[in-house]
Design brief:
five-stranded antiparallel beta sheet; Phosphorylase Kinase, domain 1; Transferase(Phosphotransferase), domain 1; 502 residues; 4 domains; 13 helices; globular
């Protein structure tokens, strides 16, 4: 139907399969060796068959195009693949500009499990980059394409003398490929480096060729161009180590490094100790799981009205603890309100003014009103028994909050932080908990029937007696031991995507 792209080693075309009902679209990838020499034809054929074998082996994954057919005709080679309709990450960034820290964490949460799967099949992709990642239009999932540079880690397919000629086509993309890959010695960690470079591209909209490199170490110089938390910066730094020995060795290592427990600690430390600039936009409301907090790293870093208020509260608590129990409001001790805040507005957001104990207990109306006004942080609050049915609280922070018997029936709690929260016997029926953080949460006896827990982080959560009948746990972080304590039925969607009892 039309050409989709062309390079030095082949071209891709959009086609339709006239032999099938509805004539569905597909992609034909034509491999055309341009170099002369009889010995290169078998090498090109091997490269072609390697990609076909790889797609045949791993193409049943929903984030990899399915191989439909492959054949050779007059010394030209053809792959027929599933057509993925959508925009590449490169096109998205060119259209919309750089993404936030939240966007990068979202990207990593999608690409790293896929990378785990590919590497478990003993495959190194070798060409991960924004142009090879498509956001599928139908379900918005990221799909990794172009396996033409793959390497089978266990069964090398060419000998050393032919390796240089073959990898002229299969070496990967300069800037995204790490030093060991350019030296023809790729390892699984080579793909991790490419994912790290892709993260920098997403944050800066700058191609690797537009960035400087340390002449002594070969490290990419990128930190000055991004505004992200120190925790995420350290993770990216380790992904981008020029020395493969110092780099993360597996995608699972990065998933563990992105555990939000240390990230929450860094938020608390940052809010309590670091000064903030008065010129400052409001907090955008995303949760720590989505990561879009831009933790203050210097006096000029932006912060929010909410974070300023938190700093004032924490500072006042520290002063009270140092002064002893006799410090009273009548002796001049008072909470420092955020810039422009009145006593009335502070009270409406759940804080007492002129009294030593903060924050005040919220009722359901007060919590919803505070959320509507931009407040997201309800950490350590006693919210037990509140009726918050069908409430819109996405991105809320309920870390260590008391939420026993709370009614969240049908509520939107996506991306919310419930780490270490008490949710025993809570009504979470039909609630949206997609990508919620529930590590160490107490969900004993909670009603989670029909709840969406896809991509939720449930490690170490107490699920004893929790009702997960009909719940969607697709890609949720949860163990067999945890699920064994809960109630499931034929309608429960397990982390694997399959339905049925655990």
């Amino acid at each position: 139907m039309k050409a989709l792209g062309q390079g030095g080693f082949g071209a891709t075309f959009l086609a339709k399969d006239e032999s099938l009902p509805g004539e569905p679209c597909c992609v034909i990838k034509q491999l055309r060796p341009t170099m002369t020499g009889a010995h290169l034809l078998p090498m090109a054929r091997e490269l072609f068959e390697r990609e076909a074998r790889t797609l045949g082996k791993i193409g049943n994954h929903p984030q990899v195009p399915m191989l439909l057919a492959y054949f050779e005709d007059t010394e030209q080679f053809y792959l027929v693949q599933e057509y993925i309709s959508g925009w590449t990450l490169q096109q998205e960034v060119r259209k919309s500009g750089p993404v936030s820290e939240a966007g990068v964490k979202q990207f990593l949460s999608e690409i790293l499990p896929l990378l785990q799967y590919i590497h478990s099949q003993q495959v190194i992709h070798r060409d991960i980059k924004p142009a090879n990642l498509i956001r599928r239009e139908q379900d918005k999932k990221l799909v990794l394409i172009d396996f033409g540079a793959v390497k089978n880690q266990v069964n090398p397919t060419v000998n050393n003398s032919d390796q240089t000629a073959l990898t002229n086509f299969a070496i990967g993309t300069p800037g995204f490929a790490p030093p060991e890959q350019m030296a023809l010695r790729p390892v699984y960690a080579s793909d991790i480096y490419a994912v790290g470079v892709t993260c920098i591209y997403l944050l800066t909209a700058k191609s690797p060729k537009d960035l400087d490199y340390n002449p002594s170490t070969g490290e990419m110089i990128w930190r000055k161009y991004v505004h992200i938390s120190d925790h995420l910066a350290e993770v990216l730094k380790k992904m981008l180590e020029a020395s493969v020995r110092h780099r993360y060795q597996a995608a699972g290592d990065i998933l563990r490094a992105l555990d939000l427990e240390p990230y929450l600690d860094s938020l608390r430390d940052g809010l309590a100790n670091k000064p903030n600039s008065p010129q400052n936009p409001t907090l955008n409301g995303n949760s720590l799981l989505s990561g879009d907090f831009n933790l203050p790293s210097s006096p000029s870093s932006p912060s929010s009205a909410t974070s300023k208020l938190a700093i004032a509260i924490r500072a006042r608590r520290a002063r009270q603890e140092q002064s002893g129990p006799n410090t009273a409001a009548g002796q001049g001790s008072r909470a420092i309100p955020r810039q422009g805040a009145s006593a009335t507005s502070l009270k409406s957001e759940g804080y007492t003014v002129g009294k030593p104990k903060v924050p005040a207990k919220l009722d359901a109306d007060g919590l919803l009103m505070a959320y509507m006004k931009g407040r997201k942080d309800f950490a350590s609050q006693d919210l037990s028994g509140l009726n918050l049915q069908k409430a819109e609280l996405s991105g809320g922070i309920f870390h260590q909050a008391k939420l026993a018997k709370v009614n969240f029936h049908g509520a939107n709690l996506s991306n919310a932080d419930f780490g270490r929260a008490s949710l025993n016997r809570a009504n979470l029926r039909d609630a949206n908990l997609g990508r919620a953080y529930l590590s160490y949460a107490d969900l004993e006896g909670a009603d989670l029937r029909g709840a969406d827990l896809s991509y939720a982080y449930l490690n170490h959560a107490n699920l004893k007696g929790a009702n997960l009948c009909g719940a969607n746990l697709t890609n949720a972080k949860i163990t067999e031991e945890q699920l064994a304590l809960a109630k499931t039925n034929w309608a429960t969607v397990l982390p694997s995507g399959k339905r049925g009892f655990w």
